[in-house]
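writing this on my phone so excuse typos. first protein, seq and then structure
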Amino acid sequence: MIGVATIGAVVAVLLVGVVVLVRRPEDVRWILRCSALAITVLVAAALTPYTVDDSGAAAGYLLGVPVVAALLPVLAQRIGRLGLVVDLTAALVITGWGLLLGLGIGGAFLPAVVLLLAGAVSPSSPRPSTTA
């Protein structure tokens, strides 16, 4: 189950990357942050039965930490403050948590880090139109 969740997360990240490159949306950061949150939530949902069976009540924080970390950049953009810092912090938290739980469920959360890092380095303002 962990392998399926990890492969699904990698495929989802690749699809988001292709869509962003092809469609060139105006607010790339918003798309990347929301996609990272959605992928993290879906991975956590997919791993919930396995984690509850394995860890019991600890599943709440084992799965909750990456979800909360992925939620923070979305909230920061809505508030309009410290977007870059929150993106990098969330990426660091998810990476650290993923490595800490690396022998178990942690690796499935790592693909979303790519989207958070891409959101941190993407341009903050919409791209100017090239059509006249």
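second protein below, same order as before
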Amino acid sequence: MIRFVLNVLWLIFGGGIVLAAGYGVAALICFLLVVTVPFGVAALRLAVYSLWPFGRTVVPKPDSGIASGLANVLWVVLAGWWLALSHLLAGIALCLTIIGIPFGIANFKLVPAAFWPLGREVIDTP
């Protein structure tokens, strides 16, 4: 129940909708470029995660190979840096208030996933 309340508050006050929209724009651009469709899929996965982050976490996929690492370099150039920057700025802004600290920490946890998303998966925490 607490995770549900935190996720609803995150949607309203934590910037979840705005951050998910950023991922959506990145996904749309990646889908339009056809070659970058795998990046679009990763962006959509992270958009859903940024909408509802409490109770879930991002972990490395054990079967991801060198191609994921090389593709992540391209991702950083195309979209990763500005998405990670948006999480960083939102996290700093939210940590300025005591009530916003949990949401700021959630944004900081999204920075590595935004910067290097391929070869990772979103799982539910127990």
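The chain is about 70% helix and 10% strand. thats all i got for now
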